[in-house]
Amino acid sequence: MKTKLTWGETLSITSMLFGLFFGAGNLIFPAYLGQEAGSNIYPALLGFLITGVGMPMMTVAALGITGSDGLLDLSQKAGRHFGYIFTCALYLTIGPFFASPRCVTVPFEIGAKALLPAGCNEQLALLLFSLAFMAAALWFSLRPGKILTWTGKILTPIFLVILGILLFTALTHPAATISSFAPTGAYQQSPVLQGLLDGYNTMDTLAGLAFGIIVVDVIRKLGIEAPGAIAKNTVKAGIFSCALMGVIYILVAMAGAGSRGYGEPSANGGAVLAMISAHYFSDGGAALLAFIVLFACLKTVIGLITSCSEAFVKMFPGKATYNQLAIGFALITFLIANVGLSAIIQFSIPVLMMLYPIAIMLTLTSLAGHFFGCDRLVTRSAMTAVILSSVFDFIKALPPTWLSVTHLDGFVAWLATVLPFFAQGFGWICPAILGLLLGFALKLLRPKQLSAGKLEE
């Protein structure tokens, strides 16, 4: 029986997983971080790499080490109903509701839009662009058996070559040293904490939980069936792909910091990348950037449609076929994409601030389960505390006008005075620790006959 992938197969899966992870946000956020952090780029990158690389790596490892057959199987270790609710919420968030539409609008905003003739109707252009984009993504997604070939062997290498040209040119011809640029905003006082929050925005911790099902399925199709061997190869692919992401994050952030030497501070990471492309490649810069972002986002949307469709087929067998779900998710993505990038980001941030702590705690309790015998009581206690406290982070992240209208701004201000780290966006940490400690206390007090694995649902 086959228990180990060849190096060629491992590299292909690594390339595929990297391609699924690395989308629009993975380019924009590190570029903007670099420009804003300036001389504080390295502590900011440390925080960014923890949540943008370390946590996604741990989610893939959690799926492999626990032998879970996808996110639903992993999350049901905390409870059957929680498993279904969280799995649906996560897939819809990183799929058709937020991440996929963002991946459609970003290449339009920072690539195709710059190539439009003067006076062109931008809304109509977005409609036509998103229609063509989603038609291509759906064509690939309706052939899930070929995802290793399309993403791992074709789209990702093309993307890396084009991005490599831009980064190599920018980093070998710097306009000034990074240390000469003063940090701005939150990067002045707390670059590490701001970097941690920036890593949230990539959505990769959520994506790691979602894409695990694709990696496991591909490894099985390559002839590995033993659960232990699947776990080992899944973890290996996760480590390699996340390490590659980390290297590119550092290079993109350094290029972003260097842009301060020849341009004014930009409003977002897309504008930073546009500035870099235009500076080094003049008129061809817009076209180069358009290709980079297009390939980055296309492969990610393919992965999102594929993973969402496969997950819902397994969660609700007999309700809809894979093709029906793929078409439905593609249609929803197309419709929401035409709302525009700014609106998508505005609505997605509060949801991310609520889901991220839950995903992090689920990953940590899964990885550390052997320390407490994988006891569901401990897991449920910690997860309950995080779920309740993450609602506060959701409220805090709502637009200021919404808080004012609903009279929640005073409540948010009060929480900032009583809940540690709430003002910095990490109000869930102390409740999570308390929930974990409470779970251990209840475990010790519980009659011994109720073993960890036999706790009633």
Strand and helix layout:
Blueprint lengths: L6 H15 L2 H14 L3 H25 L5 H5 L4 H18 L1 H12 L11 H20 L5 H26 L18 H11 L2 H18 L5 H32 L10 H13 L2 H32 L6 H16 L3 H27 L8 H21 L3 H6 L3 H10 L10 H17 L12
Helix pairs in contact: 1-8, 1-10, 1-11, 2-3, 2-9, 2-11, 2-12, 3-9, 3-10, 3-11, 3-15, 5-13, 5-15, 6-13, 6-14, 6-15, 7-13, 7-14, 8-13, 10-11, 10-13, 12-13, 13-14, 15-16, 16-19
Structural write-up:
The chain crosses the membrane at residues 12-33, 45-66, 78-99, 124-142, 154-171, 205-223, 235-257, 287-313, 325-349, 355-373, 385-405, 425-445. It holds the Pfam family Branch_AA_trans. One of its GO terms (molecular function) is L-isoleucine transmembrane transporter activity. Belongs to the branched chain amino acid transporter family. Its main location: membrane. The structure is a single chain. With 457 residues, the chain is mainly alpha-helical. The protein folds into two domains: 7-342, Amino acid/polyamine transporter I, CATH 1.20.1740.10; 368-457, no CATH class. Helices cover 74% and strands 0% of the residues. The chain has 19 helices and no strands. It has helices spanning 7-21, 24-37, 41-65, 71-75, 80-97, 99-110, 122-141, 147-172, 191-201, 204-221, 227-258, 269-281, 284-315, 322-337, 341-367, 376-396, 400-405, 409-418, 429-445. Helix 3 (41-65) packs across helix 10 (204-221), helix 13 (284-315) packs across helix 14 (322-337) and helix 16 (376-396) packs antiparallel against helix 19. The longest helix is centred in the middle third of the chain and has 32 residues, at 227-258. It is globular and about 70 Å long. The relative contact order is 0.17. Mean pLDDT is 86; it is low at 449-457.
